[in-house]
Specification:
Chains A, B: Pfam families: AIRS (PF00586), AIRS_C (PF02769). Chains A, B: Belongs to the HypE family. Chains A, B: Residues 164-311 form the PurM-like C-terminal domain. Chains A, B: This is Hydrogenase expression/formation protein HypE. Two copies of one chain form a homodimer. Chain A is of the alpha+beta class and 336 residues long. Helix content of chain A is 29%, strand content 25%. The first copy, chain A, has eight helices and 14 strands. In chain A, a hairpin with a 2-residue loop joins β3 (65-66) and β4. In chain A, α1 packs parallel to α3 and α2 (71-85) packs parallel to α3 (105-121). The radius of gyration of chain A is 21 Å and the shape is globular. The two termini of chain A are 30 Å apart. The relative contact order of chain A is 0.17. At the A-B interface, α1, β1, β2, α2 and β5 of A face α1, β1, β2, α2 and β5 of B. β1 (41-43) of chain A pairs antiparallel with β2 of chain B.
């Protein structure tokens, strides 16, 4: 095998691996904390003296590069967003890469460069990493995992246990863009479109909401989409979530592809949206704050939490009602 | 597919995934911090007010179960050990699983139970996790990644930059056990043996050394083995490492298999050993402390760091000298 593709020896702890780490990973991810020779890295004290928060996520999206992102930028956004919706400011990430033997090194470098760019934009640094190389035929090219560390203000209490009957449900922008953008990038469907994934850090949005009195709970609707977040609310609280279908922002192109292929956009992954539950009287203020940000311009109040049976009810355009069932079969695998 | 094997739907964010996480992961890993419904988890303040340390590692060992461990226990020991050799007390782990469609759920449960057992022994808790399911034919069954968080005493300064000419090099026990135990567990070799992997937490060993004046540097010799750690010392310091071959502990069975198959035990992975560099006058005390622990009974002073060319020299049994070259091709892939 030539020098332009990954070999098993790139994973063995010896000279090839050192070269790969230095020329691809360390070069793009360079920061004062990253020390590719250390077993563990010391984290400087994080501002504010709040609560240290941690989260982790794996990434197996196919294709690895898609309109609006790559598996690399997604691995930053996914983990940054899990910290952000928990009310934390993201600071540090660690990175695991599982790479298939024969992988094009130039492509790996593009992906790591896009990861580095996303990290810079989200103001997080990669402080530690690990690389494994697997034999040809395993891994589907590349999997990544990231673990994030952040800090949440001591007083901020958010959670499913704080959701009350009467609360309003908001979403920060159109749903399903990421799912459909990735789907269109798969050649198997023979479709093309202009649609970009919504993948981005939601920290500006969550930060805008965090100081709002009456903020109960935030979550980013990834795998399983908006509907799955709402089911989690029902299951945890025993309350009903009632949605106003006409209020839910869905891009025309997303709706069109969904209709063509039989998908429901409410079950498709977003990677740059926030679902927020707020005390009803604070909903207009929450909406104003979201809409004031470029990413939140299309935010909407989409429903409410109510006493009643623990299910998700969709009030349709024509005045009917439909129960949204919990997801069983995977409508669109390998989306994140 | 029946209910006893992993389906793609176990990874889609819906009801199958929730059930898998509750019945397999959460049941075995249960602890007050783990909240499978949260996006991120708040870490209680860690004792001692020291420096927060973080590290991450991926695991792809084949076979997934081997004498002395599983990929699950290894995923605990590997990351705990990276914290330990950096001088930290390990507290928290996060866990990523990449599981192949069709994987036997009973086997997954055995592996997660062994992971949970290793975590209890090492006194760390799993605080967050993520699971991805990949199509049949990818992943080689199961990959894991763990990220560890610990605390290092404020005053403790360890690192390759502290290594000085004249320092002594110690190893805490026989080298190559893990590599050979995994190799023997691979049916392809048609060999059988009683040998167990040395995989274990090295924290008791590193804790015993941490209070020693004159401790310069510790590392666990995993991929690439003892020799690769010594090459890292040479490269970072520009100094020579001189080894006394007869002093290096190698089990008879490891030596025999190595001779038969043409491996060098100095390049084989350990998963429960520590290499320590200490100021020469402190070496006897370091040895005493290691040998006082069950895991360190066969510890030895194996060489020294010297001014001279930056290479690893092995003084052989017969009085000759041999330069240990840096590892290029992988002698034994998928060892961790």
């Amino acid at each position: 095998m030539d020098d332009t593709h990954i070999r098993l020896a790139h994973g063995n702890g010896g000279s090839y691996m050192r070269e790969l780490i230095e020329t691809v990973f360390a070069r793009h991810l360079a920061n004062p904390l990253l020390n590719v020779q250390a077993d563990a890295v010391a984290l400087p004290a994080m501002e504010g003296g709040g609560v240290v928060m941690v989260t982790t996520d794996g990434f197996t999206v196919q294709p690895l590069e898609f309109p609006g992102g790559t598996i690399g930028s997604l691995a930053v956004h996914g983990t940054v967003n899990d910290l952000a919706v928990s009310g934390a400011t993201p600071y540090y990430l660690t990175l695991n890469a599982f790479i298939e033997e024969g992988f094009d090194i130039a492509r790996l470098e593009r992906i790591i460069a896009s990861l580095a760019e996303a990290a810079r934009e989200a103001r997080v640094v990669i402080v530690a990493g690990d690389t494994k190389v697997l034999p040809h035929g395993e891994v589907g090219g590349l999997y990544l995992a990231t673990t994030g560390v952040g800090v949440r203000a001591q007083h901020l209490q958010l959670g499913l246990d704080r959701v009350q009957p009467g609360d309003a449900v908001l979403v920060s922008g159109p749903v399903g863009d990421h799912g459909i953008a990735v789907l269109l990038a798969r050649e198997e469907f023979g479709l093309r479109g202009e649609l970009l994934s919504d993948a981005a850090s939601v920290f500006p949005l969550t930060q805008a909401l965090a100081s709002l009195n009456g903020l109960r709970f935030m979550r980013d609707p990834t795998r399983g989409g908006l509907a799955t977040v709402l089911h989690e609310i029902c299951r945890a609280t025993g309350l009903e979530v009632r949605l106003n279908q006409t209020a839910i922002p869905v891009r025309e192109q997303v709706a069109a592809v969904c209709e063509m292929l039989g998908y429901d956009p409410l079950f498709l992954a977003c990677e740059g949206r926030v679902v927020a539950v707020v005390e009803a009287s604070q909903a207009p203020e929450a909406l104003t704050r979201l809409q004031a940000l470029p990413q939140g311009r299309e935010a909407a109040i989409i429903g409410s939490v109510n006493a009643g049976r623990a299910h998700v009810v969709l009030q349709t355009e024509l005045g009917g009602e439909r129960i949204l069932e919990e997801l069983e079969d995977d409508p669109l695998p390998r989306i994140c």
